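Fig. S4 source data, part A: sequence.
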Amino acid sequence: MYEIKMAGPGKNALGFEMMQFLIDELKRAAGQPVLLTGDGDAFSAGLNLREVAAQDEAGMDRFLRLLNQMTVALFTYPAPTVAWVNGHAIAGGAVLALCCDYRIGTPNPKSRIGLNEVAIGLRFPPTVLAVLRAQLAQPHTDTVILAAELHPPLEAQRLGVLHEVAEDGLARAHARLALLGGYAPDAYAGTKADLRDAVVRVDAAEEARYQRDVLPMWTSPVIKAKILAILKR
């Protein structure tokens, strides 16, 4: 088993450095079963909004493409992946958890888990949205994405963001990895690729939609103002 622990400012926020760290760690894991968790009382509070607010369109494009690269690396990682969601998993943090094969959450009712991008006024890059569609079941897909609320762990479990909530979450994560890691590696990797490789392919039409509709939204004055207001809270 290979453990990846996110530890950084802003409740393990996902900026350029953290996203590259996760990509590099998955390469170092080299096909071992992976446990993903966060440091302190958070899994990850989402994207580093200070970095997002600072980007022009070219910089934002680099940021979102790195986000896509990280998402694909985790979602298609050939061996079992288990997320021990030890605290808040908000927006990009929830995306990370949903990239994993199995997700276990803390029972702490103060923890919040969910995808609040629409509430902020943002649209998902196409690869990220495709992963969310694949990992969430209807009718909960619309509830989780469009209602854009943050949920306590038991509600996140009901909505399918988490598979289970456990007091002994870390021990349960180890047990789940031991179970999945006991399967034939080639069969697991091959079947996972059969399920997931097509999900993360972006065609020309999707790329054009991203360039035309999604990317400009992330650097609009309205969004920058909203993000700065959030940072001042």
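Fig. S4 source data, part B ends here. The chain has one domain: 2-181.
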